[in-house]
Amino acid sequence: xxxxxxxxxxxxxxxxxxxxxxxxxxxxxxxxxxxxxxxxxxxxxxxxxxxxxxxxxxxxxxxxxxxxxxxxxxxxxxxxxxxxxxxxxxxxxxxxxxxxxxxxxxxxxxxxxxxxxxxxxxxxxxxxxxxxxxxxxxxxxxxxxxxxxxxxxxxxxxxxxxxxxxxxxxxxxxxxxxxxxxxxxxxxxxxxxxxxxxxxxxxxxxxxxxxxxxxxxxxxxxxxxxxxxxxxxxxxxxxxxxxxxxxxxxxxxxxxxxxxxxxxxxxxxxxxxxxxxxxxxxxxxxxxxxxxxxxxxxxxxxxxxxxxxxxxxxxxxxxxxxxxxxxxxxxxxxxxxxxxxxxxxxxxxxxxxxxxxxxxxxxxxxxxxxxxxxxxxxxxxxxxxxxxxxxxxxxxxxxxxxxxxxxxx
Length: 409
Description:
Layout: H1 4-10, E1 14-15, E2 26-27, H2 29-48, E3 52-53, E4 59-61, H3 62-68, H4 70-73, E5 82-84, E6 87-91, H5 96-104, E7 115-124, E8 140-150, H6 155-173, E9 179-184, H7 196-206, E10 212-216, E11 225-231, E12 237-246, H8 248-252, E13 257-258, E14 264-265, E15 268-273, H9 278-289, E16 302-306, H10 312-321, E17 327-329, H11 335-341, E18 347-351, H12 353-358, E19 360-361, E20 363-365, E21 374-375, H13 376-386
Parallel strand pairs: 3-7, 9-10, 16-17, 16-18
Antiparallel strand pairs: 1-2, 4-6, 5-6, 7-8, 8-15, 9-11, 11-12, 12-15, 13-14, 18-20, 19-21
């Protein structure tokens, strides 16, 4: 396994600057391309699973977090309030209070439930300098977060569906969990009173058939959770994805729905994150794949290698025609050196006078194998098919065999 801090910088994915601050990495173009592809994949995965996407501000009044319980139970990890116009505003440590208010913005009927709300949003943690490390632990986080508001009878099915979605995404990304953990409350005043036994029983049922460890003292202050643990290059474990059952915040925010009996009832809130923070997810992908990302995630998907300046106009015309591919031209240096420099790119194509004259393309795969020259339109169509995100296709749809998808490392 590779160290993402070293490899990420070598590959030009991200960087840091002391003038910006510790724990606040910036994304370079190649890293931003990986990040965008990952975000788009998760967005589409959620949409297909019935989630509705929202946007909410990264600031909230201190009172919001007093109601949610974060101020009392999570204050040490929050940034201090800012006095603005006679109000105290706080950088949010979590998205769930905002989503609770979105649910509360109008009356709800049982016919709308389960209501699945998802967002890729910023949040902030006041991490100590000694705890920071690369992309794994940062102070400004882009969180893939979602909340399902449902009836008590729907909770188990929704939590199970959330865990299945996490496992589906991990298969697509090539991530293997280190272990599943059922995080339970422990001794002390960290945890709010509530229906903990019912929430724990639901999550135990969801985990039935999977190997997992039950660990006390790791629950959220408002409820137990399933943590999907990953390991970094040094063998250190961290949590990437979670499924949580929360009876507390619906009570705190007075959330209601009108049932079939025309009476008002309290929904249950299922917190769910498929890939956790984008930063930690990309760190894991770098370490797992060693920079040889799956073709659909690769920052450059096709690299064109013109033999001389005479082939540059043809290469540029191909770039201009490839709106749905991430293509670059490498024209400096010897051909052998250019091929070696692009060893992590899924597809490379050498362009000489013969290819220009015949309007053909011969594609070289990441493992060094080559595909026979084909008309350029056919070759580009096959590359495009090979870099599509891994969606299941209807059985009736015929798939162009195209090129084999280059293996990731």
